[in-house]
Specification:
Strand content: over 45%
Structural class: mainly beta
Number of helices: 1
Radius of gyration: 15 Å
Length: about 150
């Protein structure tokens, strides 16, 4: 297993956008939980690779990124520098200091992490309310769509 302390703030902050889908359901205030892009992150994974020729950074196998008190886990995370695309795949979860926990099968972010798609999104919020959506898409900072949304207060 590799342990690497690195400034992954751009990638990590991007993955937090997936959790922002919940804010459009009135569940949480995204602005209060966005972590500083200047804050360092700790990356732990079974394998870390950077393909300089193709501009692709990847972490595979029990990936965990910790930044502040927020923890992101996934089976794999890939960042393509050339296409500005971040992809987290498999058992994606974000645990926040507030107690909110977000889950997804996949998260894909593009356009400087301003747009994104999340599949099989679920959230358990600190008040124990739950919601889930088959698919969510963040079109811009003001528009997010959720397909087949269910909510339980």
């Amino acid at each position: 297993m590799y342990r690497l302390t690195i400034a992954l703030t751009r990638t990590f902050s991007a993955l937090l956008i997936a959790a922002s889908i919940s804010s459009h359901a009135g569940a949480v205030d995204v602005e209060k939980r966005v972590i500083s892009r200047d804050s360092p992150a700790l990356l732990v994974a079974e394998k870390v690779n950077y393909d300089e020729k193709n501009g692709i950074a990847s972490a595979v196998g029990n990936v965990e990124i910790v930044q502040g008190d927020t923890i992101l886990r996934a089976n794999s995370i890939t960042y393509n520098i050339n296409t500005d695309k971040v992809t987290a795949v498999g058992n994606v979860s974000i645990m926040e200091p507030s107690g909110d926990v977000f889950f997804a099968d996949t998260v894909e972010l593009t356009q400087k992490m301003q747009k994104g798609v999340v599949k099989n999104f679920q959230a358990r919020l600190k008040g124990n309310s739950l919601f889930a959506a088959k698919r969510g898409e963040r079109i811009n900072e003001n528009v997010t769509t959720l397909d087949k949304l269910v909510y339980s207060p």
